[in-house]
Design brief:
This protein has about 180 residues and is an alpha/beta fold. It has seven helices and five strands, in the order H-H-E-H-H-E-H-H-E-E-E-H. A hairpin with a 2-residue loop joins strand 4 and strand 5. Helix 1 crosses helix 3 and helix 2 packs parallel to helix 7.
Length: about 180
C-alpha cells in the first residue's frame, strides 16, 4: 500500500496532476490579473456557481493571489437535481437564462458574496435540451443588479470548458471595473 501523501514523479497520473495544478496556478496569475485589486477597492467578495465547468472557475480563482481575502467559495451544481434542490432553480430545462440567474442569486445568498458568476450550458459533444453543444448561459450578480448573456462557443468539450471559464472570469473583472 502506498502513502497517499507521496507523489511519484514516475507516475503518469501524478505528473499529469502536477502539471494541471501548475497550469491552474499560472492561469490564475494571468486570468485574475487586476481582479483582486478591483475587488479590494470595492470591498467586494466573489463566489461562483458552476455546472458544465465543474469547479474549474473556482479552482483558478482560489489559486489567485490573495484569494483568501476575497474568494468566498463555489457551488458546483452539475446535475439538474442539485440545481433544483440546493439552489432553488425551477424544475425544467437548465440550459436557460432563468437557471443561470437563479444559480447566481442563490449562491450570492448562500455564500454571502457580493459578486457571483454562474454558468450553465452544454459542454458537448452532443446537443442537449434542444441547444447545440457549446451553448452557455452566464449570469453575474453584483450590488448593481443581475446581468445575463448567452454565448455559443465552438470547439470540443475541453475547449468549451476553457472558453467558458475564461469568459466567466472576464465577466467578473468587467463587472468589478464598472463605475
Amino acid at each position: 500500500m502506498s502513502d497517499a501523501t507521496t507523489i511519484d514523479p514516475a507516475s503518469p497520473l501524478d505528473r499529469d496532476l502536477t502539471d494541471a495544478v501548475a497550469r491552474t496556478a499560472d492561469a490564475a496569475q494571468r486570468l485574475a490579473d487586476e481582479l483582486p485589486d478591483l475587488l479590494d477597492a470595492r470591498g467586494w467578495t466573489v463566489a461562483t456557481a458552476e455546472s458544465l465547468t465543474g469547479g474549474t472557475i473556482a479552482s483558478v480563482l482560489a489559486a489567485a493571489p490573495s484569494a483568501q481575502e476575497w474568494f468566498r467559495g463555489s457551488v458546483v451544481a452539475y446535475t439538474p437535481e442539485v440545481k433544483f434542490g440546493l439552489l432553488g432553480v425551477p424544475e425544467g430545462p437548465v440550459v436557460t437564462e432563468e437557471c443561470a440567474r437563479t444559480m447566481a442569486t442563490s449562491t450570492a445568498r448562500l455564500l454571502g458574496a457580493d459578486l457571483v458568476v454562474a454558468v450553465t450550458g452544454v459542454g458537448g459533444p452532443e446537443p442537449d435540451e434542444g441547444e447545440p453543444a457549446g451553448t452557455v448561459w452566464f449570469a453575474v450578480v453584483s450590488p448593481d443588479g443581475v446581468h445575463t448573456e448567452k454565448v455559443v462557443f465552438d470547439g470540443d468539450p475541453a475547449e468549451v470548458l476553457t472558453r467558458t471559464s475564461q469568459a466567466a472570469i472576464g465577466l467578473l473583472r468587467d463587472t468589478a471595473r464598472r463605475d
